[in-house]
Amino acid sequence: MIRKYFLPVLAVAGVLFAVWTAVQSTKPMPSVKAVVEPPQPSYAYKISGSGIVEASTRNIAVGTPVSALVSKVFVRVAQRVQVGDPLFLLDDRKERAMLVVKETALVEARARLRRLLEVPRKEELPSARAKVREAEAIAEDLRLQLKSAEGVSVQKTISLEDLNKRRFAYQAAEARLAEAKASLELLEAGAWKADIEVTKAEVSRTEAEVEAAKVEVDRLVVKAPVAGHALQVNIRPGEFAQSGAPSQPLMLLGDLERLHVRVDIDENDAWRFKPASSAVAFVRGNPKLKADLTYEYMEPYVIPKRSLTGDSTERVDTRVMQVVYSFSRGALNIYAGQLMDVYIEDQAAHSAPTVAPGKTGKQ
Asked: Where are the domains of the chain?
């Protein structure tokens, strides 16, 4: 009974299922409604491109002049800073100690110069003059003794040896008098000009060393080069800040008061672009949010495309011309680094001559 009825029925059911499946597969698939409607610009002819939002000052990757430990971070993410505000501080203990050494050397050099400029001291002059008078008196006394001895006969009243002793004593007194007078003149003349110049040069050199030490201390305080916002803070106290160009910036700055959008225009459409053309940008994911763009500048060098949108049909082996527009952020809820759909009016298409069907356009 099973072979006689069940198997034929099962075969017929399989054939019917196959026919139904074939019929169902030939039906057209219903179109899936888009999650977000695409932007609808008002231009009849347009150039389209993807744009990435950036700060009006460009996104500045803040670095450090030297590799050192971070002692303190002064800003938070999204905090606004002004030009010259400290961002973070590197370990500066060694540099500050060297600054103290240089400042001490400068105080010493200035003291030496001041001592030279104040020569002669008024307290030293009376003593020097008294020594001159003392030497004069001694020399005069010895001169009179020598004169008295020379007036008597040698070998009768005074020996020749005593006479020579008095003569030599007088000559020594005259030499001491000359030395005292020279010392007084040197003291009254003040410091030697050459000594003053050498000491002044030493003071100038030490001042330069102090300024250099201050620069070394100051450069360890990394400051904001522009006014803007801290877009990223990737460094914390205790971490090691590497100089050079790290793969991840220590801190990212940019002014978000007025934003820029950098548009990639395909090289095949570059000839159609005109700076005077109007442009509009739509926020990716919500075409109701849009902003009219103001032309800023273009970079007249075509480069390989780097900003990828993630579209499966996107060409990554193309070259693009980058054009920068600006727009007021206002109430537009958009952030730096976000992608936008940009449409630029194609003025070249408006000015292209129209040719009637069947004619070549030649007269």
From this structure: 46-56+256-351
